[in-house]
Amino acid sequence: MDIYLFLVFLGATFGAGATGALFPTGAWYESLRKPSWVPPNWLFPVAWTSIYLLIAFAGARVAPLEGSAFAMAFWALQIAFNALWTPVFFGLRNLRASIPVMACLWCAVLGATITHWQLDIWAGLAFVPYLAWVSVAAVLNLAMVRLNPDQKPLDLANS
User: What CATH fold (topology level) applies to the domain 3-154?
Assistant: First the structure.
């Protein structure tokens, strides 16, 4: 694995992850009703840092391989939807609009997992924790919509 290629992928993951710093959870999120099984707040940065390291590793392993076009397309697609979800959910506070973004993210991660696995088993395995985490996040996202049916998105016209 090329360390410089790994650093490029790592930069992409942490660029997407920076949306978490731009749109922190804050008092609004704390006021929402949540399911009893919501992970503790400290787990989110630990999980995402681990996932970002793993998928940067996966991308760096697969990118130079012949036939990696679909894997790289899914890698790019998943990081794009990853970067989009946080501004929609936390920035716009639009719980309902975050559902289709999450669905696209989940499909992109599944596609990345499969296409990376086809080229390199270690790269495919590196995506498995991400797929598991995004699956939990998707169910949590749905639960948040269900538990907060009257939650209105942020009104940008009156901000």
Answer: Ferritin (1.20.1260)
Q: Tell me which residue of 74, 76, 68 sits closest to 9, measured CA to CA.
A: 76
DSSP string, 35-93: -TTPPPTTHHHHHHHHHHHHHHHHHHHHTTSTT-HHHHHHHHHHHHHHHHHHIIIIIS-
Residue 115 CB neighbour total at 10 angstroms: 22
Give the number of other CB atoms < 10 A from CB of residue 71: 28
CA–CA separation, 22 and 38 (whole Å): 22
Diameter of the chain measured on Cα atoms: 52
The pLDDT tens digits for 63-113 are: 999 999 999 999 999 999 999 999 999 999 999 999 999 999 999 999 999
In this structure, what is the dihedral angle of CA atoms 77, 15, 127, 73, given to the nearest 10 degrees? 20
CB atoms within 10 A of CB 2: 11
Give me 32's structure tokens: 């929402």
What is residue 23's predicted lDDT score, i.e. its pLDDT?
85
